[in-house]
Amino acid sequence: MDKIKVYSEPRFENETENNAKLLAENLQLLVNEFNSLNIGEKVQTQDLPTLCGNPQMLFDARLNSTIEVPAGLNREKYIQLLELPSLSKVLAAQKEVAKVRTLSLDLFTIENEEVKIISDRLELAKDAKSIYITSDGKAAQPVQMLLDAMERLNKINRLMGHTIIENKDLNRVFDTVGTGNVNKYDLALNPWKIKEYIKNCERIPDKPKKVAL
């Protein structure tokens, strides 16, 4: 049975896509800086975690795979004598990546030194907060009722001047009552909070209606 999407968060989807594009731009700058060192092969997709986490480790690995030490010489001392490129710009680019990295590096690939977003993986990331159900499944009715309740609560919140959700006050509007069974509760209104709201509303005078002359 095919599943039906019954809930999604467009704002989350847009934020995820924008974050992916921003991260791709910064990854590209980091890859460019490392490649400009001309030490060994260019950065590959599998190098991204090391490059973002510890550029020095990737740099050392490239050195070890490219530099041949003359016979009889100590490798570490020989490398210390070489004039090696500075990692300062790479490290600076790494810090910029860290500032905007909110997504997995698995979303990206490198082709011909160009960082690209893997579209199907991005779609999965954007869909992380979506809810799917089968129309005849056991969860269909409860989930649909929850969605209906969410819509009603949002309307109530707007009518109450966004005082419930913006103040994270939902738990004060609702309470729990025992059902007679151990650890089983029903949802109930918090009467004190509702009475407080009613009083506040009664203090606010209605706006005078305009009378047509």
Key attributes of the depicted protein:
single chain, 213 residues, alpha+beta, two-stranded antiparallel ribbon, two-stranded antiparallel sheet, 6 strands, 13% strand, elongated
Catalogue the unreliable spans. none
Could you say which overall geometry the principal axes of the C-alpha atoms support? elongated
The largest sheet has its strands arranged as 1-4
The fraction of residues in strands falls at 5-15%
Report the major sheet: 2 strands, antiparallel
Instruction: Give me the strand/helix succession.
Output: EHHHHHEEHEHHEEH
Mean pLDDT: 84
- How many independent structural domains? 2
Characterization of the model:
The protein has about 210 residues and is α+β, with helices and mostly antiparallel strands. It folds into two domains: about 120 residues, no CATH class; about 70 residues, no CATH class. Helices cover about 50% and strands about 15% of the residues. It has nine helices and six strands; from the N terminus they run E-H-H-H-H-H-E-E-H-E-H-H-E-E-H. It has a two-stranded antiparallel sheet with strand order 1-4. It has a two-stranded antiparallel ribbon with strand order 2-3. The longest helix is centred in the N-terminal third of the chain and has 26 residues. The protein is elongated, with a radius of gyration of 29 Å. About 10% of the residues are buried. The model has no long low-confidence stretch (mean pLDDT about 85).
